[in-house]
Fold each of these.
Amino acid sequence: MGAMKYKAFVIEAICVAATVATALILQYFVGNFPVEIFAFPLNIVTMALWGVVVYLLYKNRENSTVAKSLLSIHATWLSLGSMAATGIYLGLQREPNATSWLVVVGILFTLTHLLLITMRGWRTAQGIRWRFTLLHAGLIIALGAGFWGAPDRVQLRTMLPTKSTITHAYHLDGTMTNLGYALQLRGLDAEYNENGTPTHFEAAVNIDNEDVTLRVNHPYNRTFSEKIYLVSIGNDASYCVVEIVREPWQWASLAGIILLLAGAVMLFLRGPRHAANPKTK
Amino acid sequence: MLGWNIFPWVAAAVFVLSLSSAIAALCKRESRSIAIACSTTAIALFVLFILSLWMTLERPPLRTMGETRLWYSLFLLMAGLFTYVRWRFRWILSFSTLLATVFMAINILKPEIHDQSLMPALQSIWFVPHVSVYMFSYALLGCATILSIGALATRSDKFDEAIERLIYGGTAFVTIGMLTGAIWAKDAWGAYWSWDAKEAWAAVTWGLYLVAIHLALRPSTYTTPWQKRTYYIVIIVAFLALQMCWWGVNYLPSAQESVHAYNQ
């Protein structure tokens, strides 16, 4: 390793260590990352600012040390490593804490690196690199929608007793909120195995003056951003529990997933760019 | 209809055929067609059994760990045969037979309840593609791991092309399995990704295979010995993470709260 490369590597290592240390200190003194304060429209504003900063970094990549570092192979190893480390960290917890500062910083770093390398590599003199672009852009959109959209995601639960009209639901922390419309359970249907496990259950529910049937895996799309799920039914068939999820960014996530899927299919069909052969490499 | 009770006989027949195939592949180059015929017959028999079990249970046999082991054994034999036919590694059938036999033996020694019940959460169009695609990817990546161990032991270049192609194919299928799971999770639980223990280990596995692919993209990986060893080691470690994601996670305290607990 040349002296210049070694110096750059040391600087990168110091920056990473300082960022990790800052995240740990913030976690210790402030607690989890305050996701709620970045709810719409602040998340859109910060995302736009982030996009501009990344674009400016890309434009000045020849002169900017930061841009060079973020475009380097070390940044690739670091972002993939941080993905694996995040998985291990969260995978060992009973209640995964995805809003810790370390996780937030890791995802933001990965998104920044992904956006920079996608801007650099989406096309060459030979044309558009479709597989590269689908995989990287798909991951940016899916991961970005989950990241920037997290503050706008609302998850509510409520119990619907038979024939009662319910107009409120509860956040996961127990606080109550008004739904803005009415839910009424009209009937329940359930079938069980001999061992008592359910094979099928569904609830006939009137939602905002519309009769719908809720089943597991078949949520009701109330609006563009809201889905209502059947969670469980009472053993005596006198009530059911429903979950209301408001997630305006859900379709962006799905778009990212579809792009990634297309990229994965191309990864299989095309295989390695040129299969390993020391003579040609 | 062939139910679970005849599995030991099917497993024995598959073992004998696969072993014959492995021995034929090892003995003489001229017996290649015998190896392929035996292996194909073993796979066909296995496929018939799984289809029959599917009809007997009146649901896809993909619910329990034991049922996923069935598919894994089948796909291992298929991946082994594909690798043998495509790259002519005469010893690969021995390893794929050994691994498939281990998983079939576990199913005989530790039989699980193979009843008709399929809980509502699993009654989804995503159930079969999600699980079978994952099992297929596990088999491809299992073969890549065997070849990586072989490459590390022999310090030979001859496995590199096969390893790279298997890693690309396996990672593509891992990605498809993970994404179909995410779409299903949104329909079932309201979130594409919730960092559940199983999902977290899936991310670890995916991340490590992406490291392997990015290493393979670098020409220096194939010209610098320590980088090449690192590449093989990453593939082996990724496969260990994959085992953690598949069944190891069930033994972690974090899995007690997992929404994937029905596969234990």
Note: Chain B touches chain A through 63 residues (CB under 8 Å).
Amino acid sequence: MKYIEEFRDPKLAQTLSRAIAAAADPARTYRYMEFCGGHTHAIARYGVEDLLPGNIAMIHGPGCPVCVLSVARVDAAIALATRHDVILCTYADLMRVPGSKFTSLIKARAEGADVRMVYSVTDALRIARENPAREVVFFAIGFETTTPPTAVALKQARAQGLGNFSVHCNHVLTPAAMRAILEGRNSGVILDGFVGPAHVSAVIGTEPYAEFTRDYGKPVVIAGFEPLDVMQAVLQLVRQTNEGRAEVENEYSRAVAPEGNRVAINIMDEVFALRDTFEWRGLGHVANSALRIRDEYAGFDAEKRFAVDLPAPRENKTCACGDILRGEKTPEQCAIFGDPCTPENPLGACMVSSEGACAAHWTYGRFRQAERAGAPA
Amino acid sequence: MNRRLDIGKGRVDLSHGAGGRAMMQLIEELFLGAFDNALLNREHDAAMFDLPPGRVVMSTDSFVVSPIFFPGGDIGELAVCGTVNDLAMGGGVPKYLTAGFILEEGFPLADLQRIVASMAAAAREAGVAIVSGDTKVVEKGHGDGIYINTAGVGVVPEGVEIAGDRARPGDVVLLSGPIGDHGVAIMSRRENLTFGSAIESDCQPLGDLVAAMLTEVPGIRVLRDPTRGGLGSTMNEIAQQSGVGIELTEAAIPVRREVKSVCELLGLDPLYVANEGKLIAICPPQDADRLLSAMRAHPRGRASAVIGRVLQDDRSFVRMVTGLGGTRMVDWMAGEQLPRIC
């Protein structure tokens, strides 16, 4: 726990809290988006909101891999899992994400589909080696953080001639999503800046965020996932806003190098290519926002190997996940938040993952709702 | 004369549950000696006994833990402690248990003997007698080695009135020691988690601790052992049953450093990790100091702490002042705890 508890120290938190309050101009409001679900989770779990002045609003961004997965992709996962020759391997968060018509992988599993929860893609490779008579499909999700391990697995599978292993690729790109939010046709969100990704930045470095400061005038402060990281980033953002600056600053220098991780970037380039477009839940079709498996690895591409013919996906129309992922609505503003949509009975993806904005609000913050309603303004 | 059971190499077969001579041999050579008590040794279909005056508490629990042997305990010890603790949480003095075994064909007799021996040891430690039992054998592939059910009865002394709906605003919440040990010990041995961990299960009977607490503070209002679902779910149960709110203080809740580390690594919250030898007590504020001293004076409660207080709240919310200094909800656990992915 060394090097973790230091970043949760209550005395430092109080000091930062006072510094933020002193820096913030009471005559204006500040609206910052924390892009990553990891930040959303930390803010809610540690009660960071209580340590920020009332005129600083944190807006929860779409950096939660299962939350942004479109219903069509979830349907594809379920269809693959239901094939009798397939073992579908995926991360646990995906299990309860609703597809069309209230289906989910966990329900498919109860009906006999062979779905295995894995901690890493290495487990999926092992399962493929242990089950040579079955097709083992790794349903790969995630931003740039989980992409390099998938690339390594594909290289290993090819080197070992593991013919029964394939990857259904849903890896997506962070800068493209940030751009989509700023370019949104529905630009109801006025953002003053971003708390930039932690682990993603450890892979891609700081340079990819320069466009947001240059082209959109939005400061970006890259921050770790501990609560003091987030608070320090907020302080730096407030200072930039006050001074009219828009720069990329790196609060998370203990893990993020400006140039990122070259080895990881090169291996991603070797195995993956840009998709022209990809559908995100909430953001719709976004150009150049996701990766596909290169043709050299076509034999390990589950999308090429297994034709899945699916009816048009059906999203729950009352669910406001889309608006929430764009930062245009808060979870409480969704008509079904808490009734009937809860973590036990999620109707939308934001309620599934602990990093989803709705789940974080429901699990850690909903006592505030009633207090806000009842308390004097 | 039959050959004696080959405990070293023998395995359970279907005849051990068929009601014939093989079953009798299993009972006599494996169970009777270990559980040794007058009521069981009579080998009646049912045990017959008198109970001291007072209300009778009764409870049952089934045990399907995997792996069956884990650091700090096994399924047998768990099966005794689990039911004994349920009786104790009603304020009862545990007296008698029954034990039902569902064995899978092929289960090693040596493992069964080891489990039975630890049940016997746990029963002695808890001061209860296992007075009736049952053994069934299912075909290979229809069970996971061994399942155990235990049921128990105990007696609640005069003047003791403990229930989940008795917490009142202003009451104080106490915890008998660090949380999360059992769940982490089990997880450290699950096949797909290959990290080593020095953490042992906290599995232990709590009847004597409860007796010591009640001697000092007969007016304890609520007792609960935070097993499945952990401390977080237990607090929510009590808040809901009593129609009150509860505020915990994160910094006051004892968690071992190793447990914290494992939870950090796996993205788990110790508040929702299972315990098998800890209890929560809620008492009026004027009794809290005496109760805390009584708990700390007992070997099973050395690390006891005051961890929170009961509030007026119609919504029955459980909240926590975080270590950082903010406030958050402590909700019911949703599904199984899921590890983070990025």
Note: Residues 109-126 of chain B form the longest helix (18 residues).
